[in-house]
Amino acid sequence: MKMPKLKFKISALTVRGRLRLVLGLLVLMLFGGAVVGLGSMQLQNEGLRRMYEEEIMRGQTVSKLTQRSLMSFVVLGEAGNVAGKPDQLKQKLAEFDKLQAEVADLKKQVAGYRLEGALGKQYKDYASTEGDYQSALKDMVDALKQADAGALDVLELEVRPLLMQRQDALNKLVDLQSEEARQIYADQVTRYKAIRTLSIASLVVGLAVALFLALMLSRYIVRTLSYAGRVAREISEGKLGHAIEVKSSDELGQLLDAFRTMDERLSAIVAEVRHGAGAVSTAAQQISRGNDDLSQRTQEQASSLEETASSMEEMTSTVKQNAENASHANQLARGAREQAERGGEVVAQAVTAMKEINSASSKIADIVGLIDEIAFQTNLLSLNAAVEAARAGEQGRGFAVVAAEVRNLAQRSAGAAKEIKALIKDSVDKVQTGSSLVDQSGKALADIVESVKKVTDIVAEIAAASQEQSAGIDQVNHAVLQMDEMTQQNAALVEEAAAAARSMQEQAGELAAQVSFFQVAGREEAAPAPSAQARQRSVAAEAEAVFAAVRKSRPARKAEPAEAVETADAGAWKEF
User: Fold this and answer.
1) Which CATH number fits domain 253-555: 3.10.20.30, 1.10.287.950, 2.170.150.40, 3.30.450.20?
2) Where do transmembrane segments lie in this chain (predicted)?
3) CATH number at 15-227
4) How far apart are CA 520 and CA 540, in angstroms?
5) pLDDT, tens digit, for every residue of 501-523?
6) For residue range 426-465, what is the model confidence (pLDDT) as tens digits?
């Protein structure tokens, strides 16, 4: 299939450049129309400005000047009629002066306008009458002020002719201004027609050129896209190996070049897929056999892990019981420690009490000594009293009896004090002995408390170690359960992989059937490419080696759990 030959005057441009050219022409026409329109509007505005400022305003000023001149003449006539009435005459002259001031201001405005050509000449004719007219007005005013009876004659004979001459000059000036305004309007109409004709011509030419370029460009684009569409439909029908000709370097040429590259690559890919489908089928068969062996091995490993998990559960229960016993022993040891500490405190209190008793006994001994000394002194005093009573004779007999009784009491007190002193001494000795024994008991209890503390610490360490062992066993049990679960999942995945391998084998056959849909022109389909044959042999050899290794491997025996730990999951156990 050959692309139709297209030749354009602008074929050197890309599609983007051609579109830009058409858009540029349209933009240029739009810009030109805008420029022409703006220029026309500017000229029209300038004509309107001239007509307003130079004609209308100037004409209005001249008309006002004519009107005020006539009014001042009429006021002078009225002043002449009331010449015999001074008050009315004065009022009319004041009105005349006001009108003359307005006339003077209007003359200044007219003189300020630009007057050229016939207008300037006519204005000069008007200005030449101004001197005589103002002189006549002055004579008329002087006559009125002097109450001259001939004032009205001056108005009729001198002022009126000059006024008529002056008004005639102003009327001619107004006519010339009107003529100039009509000429300006005619020029504006002529300019508008010329600009309209130019705009229409430019628009027609620009649209014609743009339409021509757009038609040529659309024709080129449509024909090229139609050709590309035919090629794409044939590729979608499975027909490959087209001889696509590319004769331009623009975007459409690049599109056709991309179709050509796609056709060539699809042809090569289809050939490679055809030759690789057989290799995929062979590899799928070997993968299926290997997955079957791996499924059996995984099931045996799952059974071993189930038994290991059961043993770990029993071990966990035993370790937990030991941990509970150790915790109970720790609590008992803590209770014994607390009781020993309380016993030590009681012994310490007993030692303190014995010391206080010893101190009290010492004080009692001192008091008894004091009593003994008092009894001795009393005995001496009673002896002295007896001697004195003997000296007194009969008169001192009663006093001698009393002294004898006092002496007996003193002797009895001294004897009792000696007995109490002996008892207190014996009590002090026993108290000292008891205090010594209590001190020894306190030291023994302190040793017991220290020993109980050490036992408590050891039991606490044993309990902590038991708890750590229990936690570790729980983690091990959890890990074994996870391994069991993962093994079960692996078994399910292996079965799924086996099913997927069988499905892949079936899909490889379907792929080969589907690839046969493509027809590569000018190529042999029976002989596989050398590279495809080499890849097929390589894939088959690698798959056979892998699954031979899988078939040779055996699961761990149930009677040897230590070896099972060091198999496939050794790395996970070491990491744990």
Assistant:
1) 1.10.287.950
2) 198-217
3) 1.20.120.30
4) 27
5) 777 777 777 777 766 666 666 55
6) 777 777 787 777 777 777 777 777 777 777 778 778 778 7
